[in-house]
């Protein structure tokens, strides 16, 4: 029986090549989106799979409610919690703090690199599954001022992993002895840092004023993260009651509000939850995952509708088959199953096509730039194949269930009498509704895409507030700024050389610390960079009050700080002139004088709101050379600069980039636009193919009518007009529905930007015209063909 | 085997009511070969559809092997049909996607016959209708006569007691037509009851008895043997 289904289905697919093509192409395109979503989901669910005790490892969560009702749910906890939990050995096998206070610029082996680091307890490596390449996991972090680094970090600094015993120095002057080097982790982890320092270092640093005193601060819920490994057989509930007891003690001594502590299983951490503050989860969040799944489903449904549409339309030609099967003794469910199976078979073909598309996408990564839309680390697995097979079967069933229901309801009599064939479909109102839906959907897509494109091309053309043309950026990678600048300055075509600690990029890449005017409690967490006076001059950053750093500022000691206008306002100086001369505390012992206030400039992506920013001077912190070049051959200058620097450190390749290109890459959103474009293309293809199918079908059943009309003297144009009229109406209806929707969506999208491009009714109409043209082409190409055909054949075949 | 009394069938459309069968009564005995004749539109096909349990009458009684089937629901009719009746149509109604063999196999498959037995029985009837050499061809690759022979093979493969044929030679030339008529005669001689609608006096002469209809009613009956 099944074999018979298979054969019939296969042959019928093969015979109706056009319909099969339409279905496989449309369904395959949209299934490729589904596969992409699966890739994203698989990636998002792939965190923290290699840790040794997934079932008994927990992160402690905290919850704080102020008396006035303000409420925070946080993934972070106070620092003293870990030691308090450690004391109870009946349930807890190991506890560690993860205290993210170790990051910054580090020097080792004569190289300066920015690294990301945390302080952890020695038990960290018994709770988590990181393996040691060098060193001993048990003893590595027992002593203060010891550090374990990732393999990549060791290679970056030293070019090798045998570095145990060597020293690394952080920007705050603290030295650490390297006691271990990790292997590259076998999978992804939400905890993934360049260095792990011993927690016992923290106490001394707090004494020395290098770290804020938090290690005994029970109410500093933002400070760190706490992870617990339960003893085998220990009950979660017991741990929870311990935490409740701790929270109870804290609440007794607190009038401002109350806290609660909870636990979260290790494998529930990533993907993150939106409500959780200070979340250190990696990858995407559940919200984004649901959104992509919804989008994939929507597109899939549109393609399934096509199949439904076309199959019901073709039911006409298959009514005879159904009748004969029933006369031969088939029950309704036989016929029903047969047609569902046929849809499933088709959907499996479409899956093959979708896999081809997916492989191309994975290979060429058109949707990835700084943000990885499709994780590049994805590898095909048998589980992925099984899930996608199930997906195809479900999709096929969704597509096939409705036509199967209708086709299997045909009574054999219908076939014999050859009546009501035209009426099988009613007046095809369902098909029409589906076509309208699909076109409306694709028009919304197109409008949104157009708005998106216009907005970002507008942004990439707007003035960021600093000089962007002809600026070559070269990372110092441990070279001394002075020597490097000198060498570069002598290259012909170089006008000036300056340096800063950061590179302008899509997201703020500098530092952020509390800085306060007089009252520590009113400190502002300020973004800041390091840069010299030369940099401000070269980059044409405009002052609205005060002046630039003096030359050679910060070389012996730091005295001055510059603010942007937003920062001046944040400290209460609406008149920027008043800010100049004020002194700001950057830590408990150091004050800096505000020397100037800068006009706000876009130091992050254009269109993002500008946040308060400070610029400080500390030449050793500068990590990039900003080279102003004359408008000459860019390639030539770049390679000459490379050559000039290469001799300073022959072992290390000198890289470079042009500021204007960096900014365009960040602002043009090429990857997102190509993704949206791909989705729009799919939506439009699916809609057009659906329309094509319906037009072909209509023309087919009207062949005789067309023949008669021609014989009685109608011109081709008249016939095309008669046949096309109703379809054009569908397009117009779709346009009327989706133009307002698309326009509103586009507007909402633009609300996210401070700088907005223009997007009006004209743009919306333009999109509609484009869609109309595509639709008209589809309709007219078919109706014209039918009109031009010789009527003799059509009439004779009756 | 068939006994109908006062059968009535009325088609109602928005504008008109057509009385297709009007107070129609007759019998067909087991083993008989009956031809139904009459002008176009007199209700022959309607009658055959009711006899074939594809349609139900509006009034009257229809005894099939002594069982009253006039009020059977679709499911029961389908069951009865499957076990007892084979159909042959003017337009052969073969399934284009299936080969000759598979078309003939279909009724056996839906009846749940085992594969090995299906093959034996299909081959047997294909042999009988002399189409064996074409068993793996598709319907479009056959001539009209060959297609109708396949259709007959399909109608008889399940060994039905009754074969209903609606103008089986209507689309065939005379030599092909005669072949099909000869096959029906052979089947009848082997014991199958046949009711055949035809416009051809020549074909009607193969039968035992001719029922002539006019406006949904029998007018005369000619007994030929
Ligand atoms: N579904 C229907 N709806 C309305 N009227 C119908 C329907 N089917 C048949 N009729 C009418 O019932 C009458 C009998 O039709 P039927 O098909 O039985 O004629 P017939 O004797 O088989 O004719 P022919 O020799 O042309 O095949 C005709 O007048 C026909 O118009
Ligand atoms: Mg008829």
TrEMBL record, chain A:
Presence of keyword Membrane: yes
GO cellular component terms attached to this protein's record: plasma membrane
Main location: membrane
Start and end residues of each MacB-like periplasmic core domain: 20-245, 479-631
Pfam family, one: MacB_PCD
Keywords on record: Cell membrane, Membrane, Transmembrane, Transmembrane helix
MF-aspect GO terms: transmembrane transporter activity
Transmembrane segments: 21-41, 289-312, 333-364, 384-407, 433-453, 675-699, 727-746, 758-780
Superkingdom: Bacteria
Record flagged with keyword ATP-binding: no
Membrane association type: Multi-pass membrane protein
Subcellular location: Cell membrane
Domain ABC3 transporter permease C-terminal positions: 295-411, 678-791
Protein name: Putative ABC transport system permease protein
Automatic annotation (TrEMBL), chain B:
This protein's record includes keyword Membrane: no
Domain of life, per lineage: Bacteria
Keyword Cell membrane carried by entry: no
Record-annotated ABC transporter domain positions: 2-225
Keywords recorded for this protein, A-Z: ATP-binding, Nucleotide-binding, Transport
Any Gene Ontology CC annotation: membrane protein complex
Signal peptide (residue range): none
GO MF entry, a single one: ATP binding
InterPro entries, alphabetized: AAA+_ATPase, ABC_transporter-like_ATP-bd, ABC_transporter-like_CS, ABC_transpr_LolD-like, MacB-like_ATP-bd, P-loop_NTPase
Family the UniProt entry places it in: Belongs to the ABC transporter superfamily. Macrolide exporter (TC 3.A.1.122) family.
UniProt protein name: Putative ABC transport system ATP-binding protein
Organism encoding this protein: Niabella drilacis (strain DSM 25811 / CCM 8410 / CCUG 62505 / LMG 26954 / E90)
């Amino acid at each position: 029986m099944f074999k018979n289904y298979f054969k019939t289905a296969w042959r019928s697919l093969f015979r109706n090549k056009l319909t099969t093509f339409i279905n496989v192409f449309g369904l395959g395109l949209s299934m490729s989106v589904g596969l992409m979503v699966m890739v994203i989901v698989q990636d998002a669910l792939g965190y923290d799979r290699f840790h040794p005790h997934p079932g008994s490892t927990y992160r402690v969560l905290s919850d704080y409610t102020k008396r006035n009702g303000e409420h925070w749910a946080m993934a972070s906890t106070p620092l003293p919690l870990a030691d308090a939990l450690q004391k109870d050995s009946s349930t807890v096998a190991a506890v560690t703090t993860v205290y993210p206070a170790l990051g910054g610029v580090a020097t080792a082996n004569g190289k300066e690199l920015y690294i990301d680091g945390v302080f952890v307890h020695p038990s960290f490596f018994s709770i988590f599954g990181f393996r040691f390449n060098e060193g001993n996991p048990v003893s590595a972090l027992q002593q203060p001022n010891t550090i374990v680094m990732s393999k990549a970090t060791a290679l970056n600094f030293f070019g090798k992993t045998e570095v145990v015993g060597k020293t690394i120095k952080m920007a705050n002057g603290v030295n650490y002895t390297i006691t271990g080097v990790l292997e590259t982790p076998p999978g992804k982890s939400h905890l993934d840092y360049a260095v792990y320092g011993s927690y016992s270092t923290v106490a001394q640093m707090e004494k020395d004023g290098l770290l804020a005193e938090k290690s005994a601060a029970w109410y500093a819920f933002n400070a760190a993260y706490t992870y617990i490994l339960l003893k085998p057989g220990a009950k979660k509930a017991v741990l929870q009651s311990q935490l409740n007891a701790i929270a109870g003690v804290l609440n007794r001594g607190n009038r401002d509000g109350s806290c609660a502590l909870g636990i979260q299983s290790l494998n529930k951490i990533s993907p993150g939850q939106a409500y959780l503050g200070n979340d250190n989860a990696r990858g995407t969040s559940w919200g984004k995952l649901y959104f992509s799944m919804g989008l994939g489903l929507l597109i899939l449904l549109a393609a399934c509708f096509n199949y439904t549409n076309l199959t019901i339309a073709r039911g006409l030609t298959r009514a005879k088959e159904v009748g004969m099967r029933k006369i031969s003794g088939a029950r309704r469910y036989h016929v029903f199953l047969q047609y569902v199976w046929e849809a499933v078979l088709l959907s499996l073909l479409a899956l093959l096509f979708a896999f081809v598309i997916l492989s191309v996408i994975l290979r060429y990564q058109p949707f990835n730039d700084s943000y990885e839309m499709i994780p590049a680390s994805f590898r095909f697995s048998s589980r992925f194949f099984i899930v996608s097979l199930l997906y195809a079967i479900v999709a096929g069933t969704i597509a096939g269930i409705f036509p199967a229901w209708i086709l299997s309801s045909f009574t054999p009599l219908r076939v014999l009498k050859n009546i009501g064939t035209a009426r099988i479909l009613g007046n095809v109102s369902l098909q029409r509704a589906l076509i309208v839906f699909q076109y409306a959907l694709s028009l919304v897509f197109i409008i949104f895409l157009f708005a998106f494109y216009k907005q970002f091309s507008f942004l990439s053309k707007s003035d960021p507030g600093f000089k962007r043309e002809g600026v070559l950026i070269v990372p110092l990678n441990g070279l001394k700024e002075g020597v490097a600048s000198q060498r570069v300055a002598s290259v012909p075509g170089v006008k000036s050389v300056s340096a800063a600690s950061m590179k302008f990029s899509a997201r703020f890449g500098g530092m952020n610390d509390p800085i306060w005017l007089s009252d520590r409690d009113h400190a502002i967490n300020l973004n800041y960079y390091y840069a010299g006076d030369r940099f401000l001059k070269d980059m044409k950053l405009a002052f609205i009050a005060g002046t630039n750093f003096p030359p050679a500022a910060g070389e012996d000691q730091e005295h001055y700080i510059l603010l942007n206008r937003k920062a001046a306002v944040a400290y209460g100086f609406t008149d920027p002139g008043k800010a100049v001369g004020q002194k700001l505390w950057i830590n408990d012992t150091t004050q800096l004088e505000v020397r100037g206030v800068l006009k706000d400039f876009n130091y992050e992506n254009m269109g993002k709101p500008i946040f308060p920013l400070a610029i400080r001077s500390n030449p050793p912190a500068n990590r990039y050379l900003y080279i102003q070049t004359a408008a000459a051959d860019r390639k030539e200058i770049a390679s000459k600069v490379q050559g000039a620097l290469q001799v300073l450190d022959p072992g290390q390749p000198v890289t470079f980039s042009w500021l204007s290109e960096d900014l365009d890459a960040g602002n043009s959103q090429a990857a997102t636009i190509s993704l949206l474009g791909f989705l729009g293309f799919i939506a439009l293809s699916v809609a057009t193919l659906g329309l094509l199918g319906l037009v072909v079908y209509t023309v087919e059943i009207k062949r005789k009518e067309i023949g008669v009309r021609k014989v009685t003297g109608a011109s081709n144009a008249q016939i095309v007009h008669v046949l096309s009229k109703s379809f054009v109406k569908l397009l117009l209806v779709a346009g009327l529905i989706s133009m307002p929707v698309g326009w509103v969506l586009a507007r909402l999208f633009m609300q996210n930007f401070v700088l907005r491009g223009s997007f009006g009714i004209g743009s919306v109409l333009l999109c509609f015209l484009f869609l109309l043209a595509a639709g008209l082409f589809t309709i007219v190409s078919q109706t014209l063909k039918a009109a031009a055909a010789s009527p003799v054949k059509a009439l004779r075949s009756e | 085997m068939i006994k109908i009394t006062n059968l009535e069938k009325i088609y109602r459309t928005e504008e008109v009511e057509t009385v297709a069968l009007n107070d129609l009564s007759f019998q067909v005995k087991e083993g008989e070969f009956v031809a139904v004749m009459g002008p176009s539109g007199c209700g022959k096909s309607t009658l055959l559809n009711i006899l074939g349990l594809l349609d139900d009458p509006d009034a009257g009684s229809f005894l099939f092997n002594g069982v009253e089937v006039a009020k059977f629901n679709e499911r029961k009719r389908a069951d009865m049909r499957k076990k007892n009746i084979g159909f042959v149509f003017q337009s052969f109604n073969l399934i284009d996607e299936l080969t000759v063999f598979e078309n003939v196999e279909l009724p056996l498959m839906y009846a749940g016959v085992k594969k090995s037995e299906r093959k034996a029985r299909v081959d047997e009837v294909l042999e009988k209708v002399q189409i064996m050499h074409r068993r793996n061809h598709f319907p479009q690759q056959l001539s009209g006569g060959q297609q109708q022979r396949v259709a007959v093979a399909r109608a008889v493969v399940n060994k039905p007691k009754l074969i209903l044929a609606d103008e089986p030679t209507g689309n065939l030339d005379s030599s092909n037509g005669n072949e099909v008529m000869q096959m029906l005669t052979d089947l009848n001689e082997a014991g199958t009851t046949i009711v055949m609608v035809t416009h051809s006096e020549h074909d009607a002469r193969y039968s035992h008895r001719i029922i002539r209809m006019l406006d949904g009613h029998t007018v005369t009956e000619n007994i030929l043997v």
